[in-house]
Amino acid sequence: MKPGRIIGFILGSALIYFSVGAYFSNEAAAQTDTGRIMIYVAGAFGILMVISNLFPAKTPQTMQTVIPQTPPQPSLSCPTCQKPVEVSFQHCPHCGVNLHPICPNCKKEVSVEFKVCPYCATSLKEE
Predict the structure, then answer these.
(1) Above pLDDT 70, what percent of the chain?
(2) Closest alpha carbon to 80 in 97, 60, 62, 57
(3) Could you tell me whether strands 75-77 and 84-86 are parallel, antiparallel, or unpaired per DSSP bridges?
């Protein structure tokens, strides 16, 4: 039992002891309605302290903090040289082709394989 629990148990027991003693005493203050209410409240608080220190609430075990690792970037193949490239690459490091070309007319990103822009029908291949 931890020292804090022992002290709580002793204080709760003392509250119960003094509440019972005050209840059966011939003190004038203990015979009034307010006095009786205070005795009941102190006794109930003492009982709660004893019970909570005898049977502590179960606490969950300390959870280990899991730091998520950055997922590896999925790799694709360069449409020109077929060598692996990451999705975040702007240019193929092997052949230098632009992996995210922009349509010169509408300025939207298009695929390297497209011959015509799907948004504005502009020809993308130089002849």
Answers:
(1) 87
(2) 97
(3) antiparallel
